[in-house]
Write a structure and sequence with these properties.
The chain is an alpha/beta fold and 307 residues long. It contains 12 helices and 9 strands. It has a 5-stranded parallel β-sheet. Strands 2-1-3-4 form a 4-stranded parallel β-sheet, sandwiched between helices. Bound molecules: phosphoric acid mono(formamide)ester and norvaline (NVA).
């Protein structure tokens, strides 16, 4: 079973993954990071982790998670593979499927992920494309629920760029039943397809240009970098100028509910999209999010492999 996007995965399965991730996390509490889990569901399994873009969290959390569950991994960089030198995605998929039991890929175009999934005979996991980042949002749902209980019916506010991480939050709004308000400049709105789909699934999705109004009563405030890995550096200055009113600082957080949480997928640019005061403040759960990539992805791997 592929894990390509949150909107493509059954809500019952998504819920089961979150619950299993939480149980696996609890079972490991207090253990050294290098200890293997009591059961070894990935024993005998080989996983390829393919990166066409840089990564700290995705790379380390997948690798550690696979080892904890008794599997093995090979980390591959796109530029060092024939993939980066003209071999087709389809042929790469067919070849990798002869060696490994699962492929995780971080790439640029969504079409690369989909072509890989179409031609692989093993499960494929989306480790981020220009368009979405589903593993991150699974970790974020786990994080919210650990701190505050069910996310269904809550108000999430995304502030800044309507990018790939925002898109997966919109997918999750539809699948997990929470409301989402986007606040950012009109030039950086999320793709209307994501908004329409979440609305069609019953989620209330609002677009509000005034950041303070948007954040009013929020249960969760989320932002991300103003320049993503696929964005040309030439757009940096324009993006910064447009996004400055959407920086998350203590004054903006003061409009949210008193027990609101703050999230950021990281890596963050301190004092750009968010102040250090908020990042390091009591409402911030950014390092829990980073940790939960590990636990959430272990559940995703098990679901994909049916183990
Ligand atoms: N949040 C996230 O995906 O981080 P990396 O780019 O470090 O993997
Ligand atoms: N939006 C960011 C997320 C990084 C994890 C990017 O695509 O670069």
């Amino acid at each position: 079973m592929h894990f390509l996007d949150i909107n493509k995965t059954d809500p019952t399965d998504l819920r089961a993954m979150i619950d299993q991730a939480r149980a696996m996390k609890v079972a490991r509490q207090g253990q050294s990071k290098g200890m293997v889990d009591a059961d070894q569901p990935l024993a005998g399994k080989m996983v390829a982790l393919v990166f066409e873009k840089p990564s700290t969290r995705t790379r380390v959390s997948f690798d550690v998670g696979i080892r904890q569950m008794g599997g093995q991994s090979i980390v591959l960089s796109g530029t060092e593979m024939q993939l980066g030198h003209g071999e087709t995605i389809a042929d790469t998929a067919r070849v990798l499927s002869r060696y490994v039991d699962l492929i995780m890929i971080r790439t640029f175009e969504e079409s690369t992920l989909l072509e890989l999934a179409d031609h692989a005979s093993v499960p494929v996991i989306n480790g981020l494309t220009n368009r979405t980042h589903p593993c991150q949002i699974m970790a974020d749902i786990l994080t919210y629920e650990e701190h505050r209980g069910p996310i269904a019916g809550k108000k999430v506010v995304w502030t800044g760029d309507g990018n790939n991480v925002c898109a997966s939050f919109l997918h999750a709004a539809g699948q997990f039943g929470f409301d989402l308000t986007f606040t950012g400049p009109p030039t950086l709105d999320p793709d209307p397809v994501f908004v329409a789909e979440a609305r069609a699934k019953g989620a209330t999705i609002e677009i509000e240009r005034d950041a303070a109004k948007a954040v009013a009563g929020a249960d969760l405030v989320v932002t991300d970098t103003w320049v993503s890995m696929h964005d040309p550096q030439s757009t940096r200055e324009r993006r910064h100028n447009q996004l400055r009113p959407y920086r998350v600082d203590a004054a903006l957080m003061a409009h949210a509910a008193p027990d609101a949480l703050f999230m950021h997928c990281l890596p963050a640019h301190r004092e750009e999209e968010v102040t250090s005061q908020v990042m390091d403040g009591p409402q911030s759960v950014i390092f829990d999010e980073a940790e939960n990539r590990l636990h959430a992805q272990k559940a995703i791997l098990r679901w994909c492999l049916g183990v």
